[in-house]
């Protein structure tokens, strides 16, 4: 009895095995205490910047575009989630990665197969070294059940399952990255479309003003107060502006078509009515610490999960240096006729194990181990570069908002001054004090400044979108799917200098 229990205990230990390969620790990345550009609104150098420290949940999870308060944008963004084909492709990749977890887990269990065969066999009468003048025909009826089980003694199968789980989490983060990018692209296209609407209204009004100026000049010419060249200059200015006014429609149509494709509709099926540019007013968005960005960016999460996956591949490669243990069993019936096929004497069975150990393979196992370690180092570099790029994205857009905020104020002053100068020169021309060329110059300067004012506002709104995207759009690592863990250490973020 003691011997039997000893066999059971030994077999259990054999099945449990041990884990080879390194435990996973998330690689350290260079993190600063705060962003260079993330100053408070009270800072006199950056007064008016809308970044604030609280509340921490001001970005709605998922529907971050609602911070702009535009119902039409909200409607379009909602359609994107339902119909965008690129997003559906990313969803399919995630579903595939989850299915591959089940594929990997199948190796944790024995494989059992069954079959049957029935044949009559007649031996050859001319076999080498033996002569059978009249060889008999014998029946061979078999129904075996085979069991085969590779004992995961070194943790190779276990780590394969973990690698599949980590790839599934990385693919889930890829899906979130794709969703964030597509929603941001739609918002950017929508802002650009509304900027074209603003340009259209500005040029429409300018065409009317230039038509009035042409009429004024024509009247002065008829009255002998202005030369014909003034009329020709006014006609040229009006015609040129009409061309600009018409040309706006090209870019607007292209943005509208791009939005249609993003929401999964043919361009001919979507018409977005013109609307005011000023209705896009982002609310305050919370600033985050650089360390928090590691938890908020899905692309960072995907890169980190692939480092974890690469770490598992090292363990799988290391297991190849050790013996492979396989358990096999067979049981069934074999008879010579259907009548005795399933009789007790026809029972057959076998149980055994095989152990194989690589002795010489020309360095293939060592080369594979070196390859996966190099792949791990590459994934670590990708993770760190992704993190650095994320920090750059935040800094770029914070600085853009700060600088563009100052520039917008300067541009408003320039518009006021240009319009005042135009009014002055127009009155002076009407009184015969200046040449019409000065009016043309003032008109050009005023229009140029007003067009630039619209463009700066567009760039400010786009920087808002890009900042929201750079901050992860309300996403965090808690949104990664929880996949049943097999108990391997998951690791923890390690600050620089504490590795």
Automatic annotation (TrEMBL):
Family annotation (InterPro entries): MdtP/NodT-like, OMP_efflux
Membrane topology (UniProt): Lipid-anchor
Cell location: Cell membrane
An MF annotation (GO) of this entry: efflux transmembrane transporter activity
One Pfam family per UniProt: OEP
GO CC, any one term: plasma membrane
Keywords attached to this entry: Lipoprotein, Membrane, Palmitate, Transmembrane, Transmembrane beta strand
NCBIfam families: outer_NodT
Family affiliation: Belongs to the outer membrane factor (OMF) (TC 1.B.17) family.
Name this protein carries in UniProt: NodT family efflux transporter outer membrane factor (OMF) lipoprotein
Species this protein is from: Methylovirgula ligni
């Amino acid at each position: 009895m003691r011997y039997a229990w000893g066999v059971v205990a030994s077999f259990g230990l054999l099945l449990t095995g041990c884990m080879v390969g390194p435990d996973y620790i998330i690689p350290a990345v260079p993190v600063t205490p705060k962003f260079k550009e993330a100053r408070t609104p009270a800072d006199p150098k950056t007064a008016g910047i809308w970044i604030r420290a609280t509340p921490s949940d001001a970005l709605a999870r998922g529907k971050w575009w609602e911070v702009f308060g535009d119902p039409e944008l909200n409607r379009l963004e909602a359609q994107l989630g339902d119909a965008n084909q690129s997003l559906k492709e990313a969803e399919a990749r995630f579903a595939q990665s989850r299915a591959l977890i089940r594929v990997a887990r199948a190796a944790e269990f024995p494989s059992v197969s069954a079959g049957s065969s029935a044949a009559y066999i007649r031996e050859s009468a001319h076999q080498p070294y033996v002569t059978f003048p009249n060889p008999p025909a014998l029946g061979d009826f078999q129904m075996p059940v085979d069991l085969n089980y590779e004992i995961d003694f070194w943790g190779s199968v276990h780590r394969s399952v973990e690698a599949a789980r980590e790839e599934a989490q990385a693919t889930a983060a890829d899906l979130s990255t794709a969703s964030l990018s597509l929603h941001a692209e739609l918002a950017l296209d929508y802002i650009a479309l509304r900027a074209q609407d603003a340009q259209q209204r500005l040029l429409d009004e300018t065409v009317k003003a230039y038509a009035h100026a042409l009429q004024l000049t024509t009247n002065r010419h008829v009255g002998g107060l202005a030369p014909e060249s003034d009329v020709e200059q006014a006609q040229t200015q009006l015609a040129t502006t009409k061309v600009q006014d018409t040309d706006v429609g090209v870019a607007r149509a292209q943005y509208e078509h791009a939005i249609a494709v993003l929401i999964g509709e043919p361009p001919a099926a979507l018409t977005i009515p013109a609307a005011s540019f000023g209705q896009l007013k982002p609310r305050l968005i919370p600033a985050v610490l650089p360390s928090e960005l590691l938890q908020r960016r899905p692309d960072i999460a995907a890169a980190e999960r692939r480092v974890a996956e690469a770490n598992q591949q090292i363990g799988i490669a290391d297991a190849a240096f050790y013996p492979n243990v396989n358990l096999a069993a067979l049981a069934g019936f074999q008879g010579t006729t259907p009548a005795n096929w399933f009789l007790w004497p026809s029972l057959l069975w076998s149980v055994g194990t095989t152990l194989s150990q690589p002795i010489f393979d020309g360095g293939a196992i060592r080369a594979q181990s070196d390859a996966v370690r190099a792949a791990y180092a590459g994934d670590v570099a990708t993770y760190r570069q992704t993190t650095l790029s994320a920090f750059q994205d935040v800094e770029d857009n914070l600085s853009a908002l700060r600088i563009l905020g100052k520039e917008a104020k300067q541009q408003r002053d320039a518009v006021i001054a240009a319009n005042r100068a135009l009014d002055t020169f127009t009155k002076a021309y009407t009184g015969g004090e200046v040449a019409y060329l000065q009016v043309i110059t003032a008109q050009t300067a005023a229009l140029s400044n007003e067009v630039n004012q619209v463009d700066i506002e567009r760039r400010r709104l786009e920087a808002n979108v890009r900042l929201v995207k750079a901050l992860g759009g309300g996403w965090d690592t808690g949104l990664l799917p929880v996949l049943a863990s097999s108990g391997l250490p998951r690791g923890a973020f390690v600050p620089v200098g504490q590795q």
